[in-house]
Amino acid sequence: MPSPEAEARLTPDGSDLRAFADDADRGDPILPAPAGKPPSPWIAGTWSRLAIPLTTLAICGASLALFWKTLGIPPQMREGFLTRNVLGASPRAALLRPLLGGAAVPVLAALISLLVQRGRVVTFWEKASRVLAPVVLVGLFPALFNTGFGHLSQLSYLVFLSAFVLMCEPLARLSLSTLHAMDSPSLVFGGVRRLISARASGRLCLGLVTLAAAGYAAYVGFFTILNHHRLATTAFDLGIYDNLIFNAMHGHPFKATVLFGPAGGNNLASHAEFAVLLFVPFYAIHPGAETMLIIQAVVLGFAAVPLYLFASTALPRPTAVVIAVAYLLFAPLHGPNFYDFHWLPLAIFFHFWLYYAIATRKNWLVAGSLFVLLAIREDIAVGLAVLGLFLLLTGLRPRLGLLLAALSATWFGVDRFVIMPLAGAWYFQNFYVDLFADGVSSFGSVFKTILTNPLYFLTKFAQESKLVYVLHMFASLAFLPLRRLPLVLLALPGVFFTIMTTGYGPTLSISFQYTTHWIPYLFLATVLGLIVIARGVDGVAARQAAVLTLAVAMLSHSYSFGAILQQQTFIGGFSKIEFRMTPAEKQRYADLKELLAMIPPSASVAATEQETPHISARKIAYTLRWPPGPVDYLLVGRSHIGDLSRSSLNAALADPKEFGLLAERGDELFLFKRGFTSPQTGPARIKLGVP
Fold first, then answer.
1. Which pLDDT belongs to residue 397?
2. How many CB atoms within 10 Å of residue 112?
């Protein structure tokens, strides 16, 4: 029976929870112990309090053992083990024993200390288990950083990474909040606490970001040029943009002979890329495709600086550094950077300056950034209109948001439906071919389908390739851009220009330039998401946990799909990128330079696809995707005569007397000159398979 005092506190139904809680807090047993015996510690709650801490520590020990032993498996066996569960009975048994030992060690240590110190160490082990809680995930690291796993099944890897993120952040938050709550931290815990709470100086943080940006620019610039020297760049698109800016430099803006061939055309029909004129002074320093690649690497690398400046306006500087470095490691940035050259990715740099200008209310910088962004390409205006709506609907900068939305929408309408049609017709609406209403090929037809048949429209999202693409974007950022519903609005530009498409594979691959429609908005939403998290319960610990999770997720994803942390499996554009030149490739490039030296700068030249970017810095340069017409020279790479160029090459060389072989190198590179006579022309035609 309860004591008279306890009975007096009972409610009519005998279930006073407050009284129960008070007794439990004091360690009083609800049922009295037998007379003459002290209360049992099991009944008093000592052991029940240790159940979760000991279980957590046991898992931590097993996880550390699994991590260590998995790394001990030879690399050639490890990938088979992680991806196909192939190991063998004896090695698997050797793997199990350390797991059991790892689980037992912390439990035994806790039990021994409890027997020696009795209840005085219970609180210590409770706190220790909370601080060490993230260690339970360490055993998953070998799988997170295994490129074979990531590329064997991208969906499986991304689901695994997503699950890791969802577990890591709450565990890290528990650990960090425990550290922050310690009044008299021990030497170890205190050191960790001081480390995570450190405030570095602004100059130091900005210097680190600038150094990282310069390192990225140098690394990517070097290897993209190496890729160019390997003849791995193509007429579409490096040759197009090299020829476009060369002609702009010589007073012929928007003329791109590589794109249109002898028929001619205005590049504005393809894309309204007025910003090409802004980059002419930089290109003029050293005209050529290599300069285009350097410009791209430098602009994309140093975009980390305005991103850091923007993030540091509302977040601690070390956090802003992590975000900037995460941007440099973001695999969907690397693919476009290694896929020839495009104006679209350069917008990222000016996006980040725009965000910084909005946050600091520098209206002159807002105007300058908008001017360049709207000039880079017509579709950027759609994202800026969405950004304006976001600023308006969230109340962050409503007047600016309304102005930005109206200006961007108006410019897009004029640009896309007035200026570009006047320059010529193009085919980009065909990216949405499955959404055309009643067979009408137009953007208006797409919107008719969306409005009149939303069910059919939504079914077009239910594809594995689109799920994989979305997870690439969000899982690597620890889903921070989705932490609040208004932030989802910032994903609309990416949704419209990528996962809404139905007829063009590159828009659903992180290896192409279309990731630009996501990247700036994702990092804007990441910064805003961290700001929101910091304002909640345990705000500082919650923010730090989110940043830690972001760092691990980004490192894992970048290691599997990026170009910086490993160089074995990276894909840029349509193909795997090689980071070294073989002796044969070095010789081939040396041979190519010899042939290029024979071509006068003012001559007109047509070339096969991979050779075109090496001759495109001239007024008239064609690719042999179509008959070249009356050009002065033909440059042919025998191994690069594909389906696109075979018929054009045969047509160009149809008359044996029209072109003669000027030079040949290594049975691979052939340079023909109009009106030239050579006895080697016949054998060269035979080698090239020309009738």
1. 94
2. 11
